[in-house]
């Protein structure tokens, strides 16, 4: 009997792939996409993005090739910090929609095989939350829900002074006097965002119940906000808190960076709280079935501490599935060269514990966009670097089409970080420029809304930088991004080795190899001059010629063209991916493996 061709090649695949095909959990190889709901898509014409708008664009996310998306907070909020000041952890902000809208979004996402990640904001609530109102009134059972203190005696007489010199992230003292309670409360963000007291077991229990509430709604995990701020140092024996030392980073005594936050961030109890949350989501999966519910934690801190977020080196308890890797955001900018990028990549790979997955975050709602940080001419290069690396990737909405920061005037400014800084300093602190409406097409308001206004102004370049225009152009930021996402579906990218090399300060190579599979080499030129290099020796198996698999918008090459590996020429700002192809039959073999073994 003749064996069908597909069965024959499937048997070859199983026989030859071997041990390198260790099963990976869905999130370990996933592309994640961050949605800032207020700016993604408006469905009702009020100029503010909403849940139904997101639902209408889920097919776009599916087409991009992402596996999951996380939304900045959609909880009920006075919107002082645009959702990060939550007045009800179990309710939807009315201008975003209803709970029914949310449930419809989850249902449609799951129909499209997309995972839904909620933003969990555990450090603080809004001062309009019933917990704070009751705590301020010293209602029984709520007295210690927040961090309260009498302050220290005022030598000049009158009201006590703040307990310490601690500063909030948005400038000035982290302590606010309550006339009702006649005490100070701690707020490490705006005065409207009082810090919850995690040394109170009732608070811990309540916030765990919030996690369970949204798990019951069908969410697939959580991005956990501002984790390093959860705990503060315990009081000294004299009943007071210690002052924090100066950092030497700035001479402005009201700026957050003026102090070294050794008593208000990264306390030992913080890690244990993350381990407890991990235990909760793991237990939920065991009890309810389904795939892994993932924890993604936000923490700008040292690599040594971030390694502990993965798993404790002492207790071996597991914590965050994805402690966000902010190396591309915090440690790199337009002055960074290839050696700097390689250092960031290798330093993170060095701290990822065995059996855990790396992750790479290129942008978010708090930092300037990729095109603004690195230069518009490097947009493709940075996206191609991101998507060539092993593990999970996180893309902030709009980076795939090359959106850039929008100039926001003082009069248009709404970000509390900018407003607190004042007109003279607002531009250096504002997060508004990277939060402007998503650019869908070249119609009025960039297709973001049917109304005649938007909560932040639309970027002036929206007629040329938008989804509709870029979908129609073969060589666009969007189509380069999509092509890279398709490469990530191949076994070489999911299971292969990675090697990074800086030829000089401008040229970077990322090599992905897997035995019996195609070899891929991503090459980027970050500089302003032509670079010529010899690629021989980059990979263990390299033919004399390689084919162009993905080409950036700055390249004159086309997909399918060939280049000699001993004489690779890169134009200024050029980026592309070369592939060393197997024979035709081996290639078919690989394609079948992609389809049948994922």
Q: Could you please describe the fold and organization of this structure?
A:
The protein has helices at residues 5-17, 51-56, 58-64, 99-111, 130-136, 201-216, 268-288, 303-310, 327-330, 338-351, 370-373, 379-388, 416-421, 426-429, 467-471, 477-487, 491-495, 584-597, and strands at residues 31-35, 68-71, 75-76, 88-92, 115-120, 148-149, 175-178, 183-186, 221-224, 294-297, 322-323, 359-361, 392-396, 497-502, 507-513, 519-525, 531-533, 545-551, 562-564, 568-570, 575-580. The protein is an alpha/beta fold and 598 residues long. The protein has a domain at 124-195 and 233-261: Oligo-1,6-glucosidase, domain 2. The strands form five sheets. It has an eight-stranded parallel beta sheet. Strand 14 and strand 15 (507-513) form a beta hairpin. Helix 1 (5-17) packs across helix 18 (584-597) and helix 6 packs parallel to helix 7. The longest helix has 21 residues, at 268-288.
Tell me roughly what share of residues is in helical segments.
Answer: 25-40%
For this structure, the CATH topology of one domain is Oligo-1,6-glucosidase, domain 2
- The percentage of residues in β strands lies in 15-25%
The total count of helices amounts to 18
Radius of gyration: 25 Å
Read across the widest sheet, the strand sequence of neighbours is 11-10-9-5-2-1-13-12
The whole-number mean of residue pLDDT values reads: 93
Q: CATH H level of one domain: which superfamily?
A: Oligo-1,6-glucosidase, Domain 2
Q: CATH class of one domain, please?
A: Alpha Beta
Cα distance spanning the termini: 29 Å
Molecular shape: globular
Low-confidence stretches: 1-20, 583-598
Q: Count all strands and give the number.
A: 21
- Largest beta-sheet details: 8 strands, parallel
Second rung of CATH, namely the architecture of one domain? Alpha-Beta Complex
Secondary structure category: alpha/beta
């Amino acid at each position: 009997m003749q064996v069908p061709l597909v069965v024959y090649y499937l048997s070859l695949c199983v026989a030859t792939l071997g041990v390198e095909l260790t099963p990976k959990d869905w999130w370990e190889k996933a592309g994640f996409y961050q949605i800032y709901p207020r700016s993604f898509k408006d469905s009702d014409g009020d100029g503010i993005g909403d849940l139904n708008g997101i639902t209408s664009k889920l097919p776009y996310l599916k087409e991009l090739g992402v596996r999951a998306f996380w939304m900045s907070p959609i909880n009920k909020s006075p919107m002082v910090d645009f959702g990060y000041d939550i007045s009800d952890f179990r309710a939807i902000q009315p201008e975003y929609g209803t709970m029914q809208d949310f449930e419809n979004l989850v249902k449609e996402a799951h129909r499209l095989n997309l995972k839904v990640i909620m933003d969990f904001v555990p450090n603080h609530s809004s001062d309009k939350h019933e917990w704070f109102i009751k705590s301020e009134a010293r209602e029984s059972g709520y007295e210690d829900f927040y961090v309260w203190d009498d302050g220290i005696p005022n030598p000049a007489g009158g009201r006590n002074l703040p307990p310490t010199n601690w500063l909030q992230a948005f400038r000035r003292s982290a302590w606010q006097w309550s006339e009702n309670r006649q005490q100070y409360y701690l707020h490490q963000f705006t005065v409207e965002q009082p810090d919850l007291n995690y040394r109170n077991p009732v608070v811990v229990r309540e916030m765990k119940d919030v996690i369970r509430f949204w798990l019951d709604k069908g969410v697939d995990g959580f991005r956990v906000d501002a984790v390093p701020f959860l705990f503060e140092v315990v009081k000294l024996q004299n009943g007071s808190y210690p002052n924090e030392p100066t950092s030497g980073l700035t001479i402005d005594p009201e700026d957050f960076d003026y102090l070294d936050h050794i008593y208000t961030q990264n306390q030992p109890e913080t890690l244990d709280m993350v381990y407890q949350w991990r235990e909760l989501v793991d237990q939920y999966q065991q009890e309810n079935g389904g795939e892994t519910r993932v924890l993604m934690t936000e923490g700008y801190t040292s690599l040594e501490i971030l390694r502990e977020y993965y798993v404790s080196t002492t207790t071996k308890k597991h914590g965050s599935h994805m402690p966000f890797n902010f190396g591309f955001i915090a440690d790199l900018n337009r002055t960074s060269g290839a050696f700097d990028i390689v250092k960031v990549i290798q330093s993170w790979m060095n701290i990822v514990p065995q059996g855990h997955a790396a992750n790479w975050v290129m942008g978010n709602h708090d930092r300037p966009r990729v095109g603004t940080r690195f230069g518009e001419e490097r947009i493709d290069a940075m996206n191609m670097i991101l998507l060539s690396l092993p593990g999970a990737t996180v893309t902030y909405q709009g980076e795939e089409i090359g959106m850039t920061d929008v100039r926001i005037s003082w009069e248009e400014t709404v970000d509390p970080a900018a407003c607190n800084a004042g007109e003279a300093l607002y531009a250096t602190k504002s997060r508004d420029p990277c939060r402007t409406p998503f650019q869908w097409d070249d119609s009025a308001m960039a297709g973001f809304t049917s109304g005649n206004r938007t909560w932040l102004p639309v970027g002036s370049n929206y007629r040329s930088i938008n989804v509709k225009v870029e979908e129609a152009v073969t060589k666009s930021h969007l189509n380069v991004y999509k092509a890279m996402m398709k490469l990530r579906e191949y076994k070489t990218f999911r299971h292969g080795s990675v090697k990074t090399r800086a030829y000089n300060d401008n040229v970077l190579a990322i090599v992905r190899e897997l035995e019996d599979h195609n070899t891929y080499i991503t090459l980027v030129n970050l500089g302003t001059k032509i670079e010529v290099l010899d690629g021989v020796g980059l990979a263990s198996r390299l033919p004399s010629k390689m084919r162009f698999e993905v080409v950036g918008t700055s390249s004159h090459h086309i997909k399918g063209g060939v280049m000699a590996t001993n004489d690779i020429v890169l134009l200024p700002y050029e980026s592309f991916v070369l592939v060393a192809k197997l024979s035709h039959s081996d290639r078919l073999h690989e394609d079948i493996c992609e389809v049948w073994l994922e």
